[in-house]
Amino acid sequence: MCPLEYYEGGTISLCFVRRCCPLAMAFRDVNSRRHIGLQQLSSLASAGRTLLGPMKSCKFVVDESTNQSMLICSAVRLIESLDLSSAAGQLLNETIQAQNKEFKTGMSTLLFLVGAWSNAVLECLQQNVPVSAIVSAMSEGLNSCCEKVQCLQRSVHDVNKELCSSSVRPNTSSSKTYEVACDSFLNPQIFLCLQKEVSPSKELVPRNSCSRQEADSNLNKGLVLPLAGFGSIASPVRSADGNNASVISGSGVSASSCKQKRLTHSRYFSALATSPSSSQLDDSQVCLSGQSAHLCECYGLGHLARALSHGNEPNMKLLKSIVAYQHERAECSGSSQFNIAEVVTCCLPGLPESYSCVCPGFVTLISPEQATVIKHFGDKPLRILLTEGDLTEAYRHLGFTKPRNVRTMLERPDLQEGRPGDVWLNTSLDILMRSQVSLVLVKGHVCENLLERCVANKILVIGSVPQKVLSAFGEASGAQPVTYLTQLSASCVGSGAQLELWTASDGRAMDLGELVPVRIRVRGLALLTAVLTTAVPAKMQLVEDLFWTSVYRLHHALRDGKVFLGGGAVELLCLSHSQALAEQALKLVNKKPVKEFHSPWLAASSAQYKPVVLQALASGWSQYLAAVMCNTAKATSLFEARTLIEHHLKKAADCGSPSAYVLKEFQTGGVFRGGPVPSTGSAEGCRVYDNVTAKTEAWRRALDLVLLVLQTDAEIISGPQSNQLLNSPASSEFMFL
Question: According to the lineage, what is the superkingdom (predicted)?
Answer without folding.
Answer: Eukaryota
